Amino acid sequence: MVGVTDNPPESADDRGEETMHFRKISAALCFALVGLFASAQRAPAASDTIKIGYIDPFSGPFAQSGDQFLQVLHFIVDDINTRMPPLGKKFEIVTFDDKLQPSEALIALKRVTDQAIPFVMQCVGSNVGTALIEGVSKNNERNPDHRVIYLNCGALATELTNAPLCNFWQFRFTGSVEQRAYARIKSLPADVKKVYLINQDYVFGHSIEHDTKKFLQQLRPDIEIVGDEYVPLGQVKDFSPYITKIKNTGAQSIVTGNYGPDLNLLMKAASDSGLPIRFDTYLAYLTSAVTAIGPMGADRMTVVMEYNENLPVELNIPAAEKLDLAFRKDHKFDFVAQPWVVMFEMLSRAITQAGSVDVLKIAQNLEGMQQQDLLGKTETMRKADHQLILPYYEGLLTKDVKYDTEGTGLGFKTIFTVPSEDEELATTCAMKRPS
Prior knowledge:
Largest sheet: 7 strands, mixed
CATH class of the largest domain: Alpha Beta
Number of domains: 2
Structural class: alpha/beta
Distance between the termini: 78 Å
Strand content: 15-25%
């Protein structure tokens, strides 16, 4: 049955004109849809996360550092996302492997900028840190609409926040070699008169050697340096020949900035030889070091550090102890990265104050920012050079602690403290700020 209609019957001409009109509308609609699709492809999608590109070694001899630092960062980010999410969003860590090679780090940085990630974070290797400072600076000059902030959480060489390397787009959320060296030499006991220096042969090890010598001369001119040498980064498998040389000098203490396998194997060789010598270290709180030296290190290995799990007990800070216990529940290594908590707290505040992920405003907000750390001490992001100013603690490896390290029965007991005001050392940085 034919349906009833109120419209008059169409002529052939009427139908032709209507068909042409319909084709024109369809073509216009198609072009509009194509344009909308292309626009949607170009425009970044709204997101409930703020991404941070994390560049560190996840393969090669220092992969353990990258893997375990990532676990620590995830733990901290989960806490920050719950406690103080920036703009109601969540931080998200996106990893990139640099194999501890500056060239690989720059490739990773390109991937970060291609994905329009506003922050790049790196914690292992001053050689990589040097490359990233230059890479981020060049990117920000060439692409002012896609700038990146470099969150330095572990590239420690003093030079990185001094002239000529200091840069507006870098913020170092950990102590420099110079700050550590001041604490390291300041805390040496009076009966130490002969030291042997051994460090890794690259920018960080050179920085350690330079600043250690500087503060030995300034603070302890009574100490004799009986040995001073570099080891190739991550290449020595047997340190027993080095231990033999050290033994023959009559050194009372090995002062070393070695970390990773270069520290662990050095300690193991000393332990195997039964050499009765002090280890006054910079980074022996990092993973596996205490396991490597074992009982031999008890009551004669020290390290200058920014935090250890026994500090909240010693200072009666229950909230910090609770956080440590939450970490210990799921991890077999210590929580020592207290400045990284400050880093994410400051970053969250700076983003919230900016009201958006505008990296220039965020960088400006970070300058001079102060934040109480887990122990209630005030830490400051110094505006002059973007160097975090924080206190240092010398820990002695001993059984006389509440919390041990890595199930060894040994942990760090605080025996010396350098307050943050003493760590505000002079800088040669002449910061150039964007207009």
